[in-house]
Amino acid sequence: MIELAIVVPTYNERPNVGELVRRLAEALAGIEWEVVFVDDDSPDGTAEEVRALARRERRVRCLQRLGRRGLSRAVIEGVLSTSAPVIAVMDADLQHEEAVLPRMLERLGDEASSDVDIVVATRYAPGGGHEGWDEGRARMSRLATALAHRIVRTGITDPMSGFFVVRRRVFEAAMRRLSGEGYKLLLDLLASLPAPARVAEMPYRFRPRQAGESKLDSAVLWEFTLLLLDKRIGRWIPARFVLFSLVGASGVLVHFAVLSVAYRVEQLPFGLAQALATLVAMTTNYALNNSLTYRDQRHRGLGWLRGLLTFYAICGLGVVANVGVANALFDRQGWLLAAAAGALVGTVWNYAASRAVTWRKKS
Ligand code: GDD
Ligand code: MN
Questions:
Q1: Whole-number Å distance between alpha carbons of 306 and 179
Q2: More confident residue, 151 or 99
Q3: Atom of ligand 1 nearest to the CA of 92
Q4: Residue 38: CB within 6 Å of ligand 1?
Q5: Is residue 311 within 8 Å of 279, Cβ to Cβ?
């Protein structure tokens, strides 16, 4: 009977997976386990390597995803692909100390008699830490952790950990509410549970990466910020809509700045100055939304231009909607309310349409 599944997300980890399986086998002697590698079609051929391992060792499985990226969602699919009653989540790059796993399982204990549902391996408890981190990376990590504490109020020392053990039943209670964005599945899980989880911690030392490179870049940090925002305000209003509206407000400033220069200083005809201001504001709005609001799926190169053209078209229709609504309300509601309603309808349209077309999810 299977007792434990280790779910390991991979992207370009070919040199690490064999060693990880070897170490798991050593650490988990006496336990019925399997390991599910969830690979997002890594160009380095990680999936082929995993399948080669799986042909020799039936505990190894490969789940290859095509045309998609994303650490959290990869792990979620990995969990759904196994029937094990207990799930461990860990990285492929040997940074997470596999020797701590048996202790985590022991702490989790039997469902019937245990007082915990999740055991988190932590870097920030006595006995834990990270090896070979420079001060900059350590500071970033502390900052993100503090932010996470403020927003999700977890009470655990390492809510950003990518190394934890959870009962399947607990995962299932949360799985339909998970946002799945970004790479902080543990935070997502804790914030999505209907009742507060019973969590224990286990210190470990985060090791330096042996081979390959970290995939956590600024886009990932940005996703994390969005995830936190979404957990905080997403119930009432999508975090992206808030950002989109803020960018829109900056566009109004840009518009008036360009208009006053073109019309007052350069003495262009008003219609021309107005058209120029609109074009510039739409372009800065697009650029800002592309690098902030939709940073995780931003367009580059030719795709950037293509996105810009769709954005122009959408905003053009948005103006029509804005003016139409304002005109319809003008007689009965007065100019202020009519203008506000027009702007709101225009913004919602721009948001919804650009989300569906300009920044359509590829998955
Ligand atoms: N399937 C899939 N898809 N896997 C991915 C993706 C992706 O888009 N991006 C990264 N991975 C895999 C990597 O191959 C690795 O096995 C694991 O996810 C973590 O990625 P790293 O790039 O090594 O992240 P890190 O070392 O900077 O941070 C990790 O450790 C921290 C401390 O526990 C992450 O697990 C963090 O979430 C965690 O805070
Ligand atoms: Mn890593």
A1: 29
A2: 99
A3: 16
A4: yes
A5: no
Q: Which atom of ligand 1 is nearest to the CA of 163?
A: 33
Pair 121, 157: CB distance under 8 Å: no
Dihedral, CA of residue 181, residue 186, residue 191 and residue 196, to nearest 10? 160
Q: Which two tokens stand for residue 313?
A: 């078209």
220 lines ligand 1 (CB under 6 A): no
Per the listing, tokens 């027009």 go with: 342
The maximal CA–CA distance of the chain, rounded, in angstroms, is 83
* 136: number of Cβ within 10 Å: 8
Question: How remote is the CA of residue 61 from the centroid of ligand 1, in Å?
Answer: 19
For the whole model, what pTM was predicted? 0.73
Residue type for 17, please? V
Distance CA 349, CA 325 (A): 12
Q: Is the CB of 210 under 6 A from ligand 1?
A: no
Residue 217: pLDDT band (50, 70, 90) is low
Could you tell me the distance, in angstroms and rounded to a whole number, from the CA of residue 207 to the centre of ligand 2?
9
For ligand 1, say whether the CB of 77 is within 6 Å of any of its atoms.
no
The closest alpha carbon to 274, from 262, 283, 285, belongs to 262
Residue with tokens 């954005």: 311
Going by CA atoms, what residue is nearest to atom 35 of ligand 1?
162
Cα separation, 34 vs 132, whole angstroms: 31
User: Between 236 and 280, whose confidence is greater?
Assistant: 280
Taking the C-alpha atoms of residue 152 and residue 221, their distance in angstroms, rounded to an integer, is: 16
Query: Does ligand 1 lie within 6 Å of residue 215's CB atom?
Result: yes
In testing the pocket of ligand 1, which one of 21, 215, 362 has its CB within 8 Å of the most ligand atoms? 215
User: Residue 280 has which token pair?
Assistant: 């510039």
Q: Mean per-residue pLDDT for 147-164?
A: 81
- Cα gap 175→169, rounded to integer Å: 10
Residue 82 in tokens: 């196994």
Residues 291-322: tens digit of each pLDDT = 989 987 889 999 999 999 999 999 999 999 99
- Report CA(323)–ligand 2 centroid distance (Å): 51
CB count in 10 Å sphere of residue 237:
11
Is residue 113 helix, strand or coil?
coil
